[in-house]
Amino acid sequence: DLAAIGKWSRAGAVLDRVGVSLTFAQSGWKEWKASETSGTGERVGRSVTMGVATATGAWAGAKVGAVGGGIIGSAFGPGPGTAVGMIIGGTVGGFAGSYAGQYVGEHLVDYGGEIGGLAQDGLDRVFDEAGDAVDWVAEGAGEAYDTWAFWD
Fold first, then answer.
1. Distance separating alpha carbons of residues 46 and 106, to the nearest angstrom
2. 131 DSSP 8-state letter
3. Are 56 and 105 in contact (CB under 8 A)?
4. Using 50, 70 and 90 to split pLDDT, how confident is the model at 124?
5. Which of 29, 84, 109, 119 is most buried (most C-beta within 10 Å)?
6. What is the pLDDT of residue 5?
7. 77 close to 86: Cβ distance less than 8 angstroms
8. CA–CA distances in Å: residue 136 to residues 23, 60, 142, 147, 148
9. pLDDT at position 150
10. What is the distance between the alpha carbons of residues 6 and 10, in angstroms, rounded to a whole number?
11. pLDDT of 137 strictly over 70
């Protein structure tokens, strides 16, 4: 029945997104806690880098595992064997991929921290300059008021 296949397909897509999101959040949070002595920008950069690397590895592993599991499962019985093989292969592949992604993330996390730190420095400078501009405008407005009040 095509309607049932469509429902399972949509359910699989939702589970895929939920799994990737949870993997990103968990690995990012773990890195956030591990880099508590770093500045905010560096911490954000490190956490996002680790989250993206781990979630990407888990996603890719699940996709490859599901295809491989489906092929193997089909050998034991097309239909149910394919579905069971895809579920098992996707799960195993997702776990294996998340470990591979974590490994890659551990090698990239310092670069992510550097980028986050640079972004934080840039934002600090922008806000400092904006604050200086506001001070300049306020000072000018105060002087204008004083001049106007003098002639009043």
1. 9
2. H
3. no
4. confident
5. 109
6. 66
7. no
8. 47, 53, 10, 16, 18
9. 63
10. 6
11. yes
- Evaluated on CA atoms 64, 67, 68, 70, the torsion sign reads positive
| Residue 46 contacts residue 106 (beta carbons within 8 Å) | no
Q: What are the angstrom distances between the C-alpha of 121 and each of 38, 52, 62, 114?
A: 13, 23, 38, 10
State both tokens at 127: 């806000």
CA nearest 75: which of 85, 67, 65?
A: 85
In 3-state terms, what secondary structure has residue 53?
A: helix
Cβ pair 65, 114 in contact under 8 A:
no
Q: Cα(126)–Cα(28) distance, rounded to whole angstroms? A: 27
Neighbouring residues of 67: CB distance < 8 A, sequence distance ≥ 6: 86, 89
**What tokens does 149 get?**
């009040």
- Per the structure block, which two tokens stand in for 31? 């890195």
